[in-house]
Amino acid sequence: MSKRQPPGGQAPVVQRIRIRYTKRGPLRFTSHRDFARAVERAIHRANVPIAFSQGFTPHPKISFSSAAPTGVASEAEYLEIGLRERVDPELLRLALDSALSPGLDVVEAVEAVTTDSLADRITASRWRLELPGVTSDSLAAAVDKFLGHDEVLVERLTKQGRRTFDARAAVVALTAVEPPYGSMGAPCAILDLVVRQVTPSVRPDDVLSGLRVVADLEPSAPARVTRVVQGTLTAQGEIVDPLLKDRDQAAIG
Amino acid sequence: MRGESVFPQLEQLLPLVAKPIQYVGGELGATVKPWDSVAVRWALMYPDAYEVGLPNQGVQILYEVLNERPDTLAERTYSVWPDLEKLMRERAVPQFTVDSHRALGDFDLFGVSFATELGYTNLLTALDLAGIPLMAAARGDDHPLVIAGGHAAFNPEPIADFIDAAVLGDGEEAVLEITDIVAAWRAAGSPGGRDELLLRLAKTESIYVPRFYDVDYLPDGRIQRVVPNRADVPFRVHKRTTMDLDAWPYPKKPLVPLAETVHERFAVEIFRGCTRGCRFCQAGMITRPVRERSITTVGEMVKQGLEFSGFHEVGLLSLSSADHSEIGDMCKGLADQYAGTNVSLSLPSTRVDAFNIDLAQELSRNGRRTGLTFAPEGGSERIRKVINKMVSEEDLIRTVVTAYSNGWRQVKLYFMCGLPTETDEDVLQIARLAHEVIRNGRAATGSREVRCTVSIGGFVPKPHTPFQWAAMDRPEVIDHRLRLLKQAINADKSLGKAIGMRYHDGEPSLIEGLLARGDRRVGAVIHEVWKQGGRFDGWSEHFSYRRWIDACEKALPAFGLDIDWYTTRERELAEVLPWDHLDSGLDKDWLWKDWQDALTEYEQDDCRWTPCFDCGVCPSMDTEIQIGPTGHKLLPLTPVSGLKVGG
User: Fold this and answer.
1) How high is the ipTM of this complex?
2) Best of A23, A28, A45 to mutate (most B CBs within 10 Å, chain B)
3) Are the beta carbons of B643 and A87 separated by less than 8 Å?
4) CATH number at residue B142
5) Residues of chain B found within 8 Å of residue A31, distances taken between Cβ atoms
6) What are the residues whose beta carbons fall under 8 Å from the beta carbon of A78, sequence distance 6 or more?
């Protein structure tokens, strides 16, 4: 019996599509691994002409940009897929969206016409944190204290054990937002946060740990966190839509 | 308000627990209906963690069959892990369904599917978290009816105190009939309350309501008799058999979870029942007769299931899939259809013959080669005659060597330990077999890369089998034999290096044995174990043998009994067994004769290919063997192209 050869001849990639999707409501508890599996199935189910890698175990051409932590909602997650046949991006968006559970919504699909990678264009995120049981005044005070430090050391339990790192330097902006008028019952302060992508990454819960360290700020229930925007951080502190360049190029072409 | 979602409360807890996605629902294929749009509401449970329970075929089938009825809704609930259980108790969040996060206590019916007896403590957790009294006798008209099903329900006596009813056998028609009965009783203004409803169910003669039966005991602890305590219920309750599987092509819309589960595939049952007659196999005894699904229905289900789910793998399931009368055409047809599509096919392979390898070859055409498993079950020729697993040593070695010669480098051999009449020598034969397999495999392939894994499970005598009278071996005996086996495998260093050995120690099997053949008095043990923290007993990291032994020592002396009496004691023909009033169709005299045949190492043929041997099932259940060949072939699919928008 001769050694088996990997089946060759997988069709080449003829089109790349960049996609923005959400994790909303209860489905914010989807982990990245879970989502990756769901996307593979959705692609299959929607009959998307996905391209595969070569080799013994061909893998579908899907690449994900950094995912929001499990339990954090997001309006701006990104992935890119390689196709073996050309499709209309809007049709693809509709097909994938209907093949995924409601809450995992495919909101934008743009053909990649530029060569730089999506990951390179994502350098910062804007997050919104709802903090149950925290008043706006106490939040504003905590934010002032946090921003007054050059360094705020926090701890996080990682697979390698307990790690200490700085949660301050990566924070570009931190603002206590007035809760919308008429929010009822118990206080619930809202925090607007812009964080630069660094290694090790600083996540919203690390900033919350920082607020606990500097000001003893402690929500009465777990914070509800949403990633609002992801993209390229400008010198002015703005975040630019990472699909903008592809969209512009496509419009010109 | 009944039927209200508890998600807002649950949501607070989810960031604090492991793998929260398992509690969220949102699967493709899930059905959510407005509470007030229906007359009858079912909660279905597989009493294990979501990752194990979600893929369960039985629950998926009943879920879909029930939800197809406009007047009915069915939602699912699974066991919550101890981390969430603790938080739910602290914050008073009740056991919930994953579909709409409704409180379990709000439903009319609570159906629990027991594939194994080790799920009993998880039933108690769910009831307690739901605020439903553990004891059926303490429940009122507002509590759900708790109904057990699944293979363990063929002897539900150990949980008789905790359930309101049990259904034996196939569930798809049973749940519809129960729904009709509940709807009619409700429409009539719920006359007579809970008792009247249970009586209506009992009168069907196929739903067992333990409270309507009294058990009398002899002074020595054995059962004297089990009799109805009212005139209008039957003396014996009969199992259900769904005939014509082509008329029940479920699941049509398989549940596709977001969370990772133990089986990530679309599974199609290609037949139900098995008449191979392995004497240890409860499934093979209680699911008779064989009923095949036709090749064309299987093909249609695979096509629809894959399109619906987006799964990449199809499993062709049954108790012995290679025995389907058209399995060859089925595998070839499916392999043709999905050639070059990245869909892989799998067949649980247990038959020990060359045909099985032909099938495996066919299925691995797409380039993916999964492991091959053969199940000789017994190490010696003699013990294989006792258990009626008709495989000769020559066959086994030839089959495995053929697999090696066809490119497989790794095979798994499955055996049992603790079988009736077993001696150390029978178990040591496993080592010799494994050595022969490797020696011959090396010779045939000229390669030293061939490997085999010997996997050993503990034998547990089960109700409604010829071994229902057998004595179990004590865990020390099992553990001793496994040690001897390990030494024997490694006695030859060169061969031993190519052989892996996997086994479980004997203790969990003894407890499974207690629960499998227990009577109502064992309920006190289950209750005590649960009170002492017993949860997830099917998981070695949660199972505590000590806890079960302590509970036995606390609860059983009141009856003058101990765990040995239930497990290591051989029964006599005259003894009334706890499940004698529950009719699986098998004739008790035939079972006894088959038990005697086992002791004299006399084999029994398969009635699909030889004349009927009068096990009793077909005449008493009014059923018949349904097998092909139909002569139909699977035609290649027309390739679908273009994006598919919408389900």
Assistant:
1) 0.89
2) A45
3) yes
4) 3.40.50.280
5) 19, 21
6) A18, A19, A20, A21, A64, A65, A118, A122, A230, A242, A243
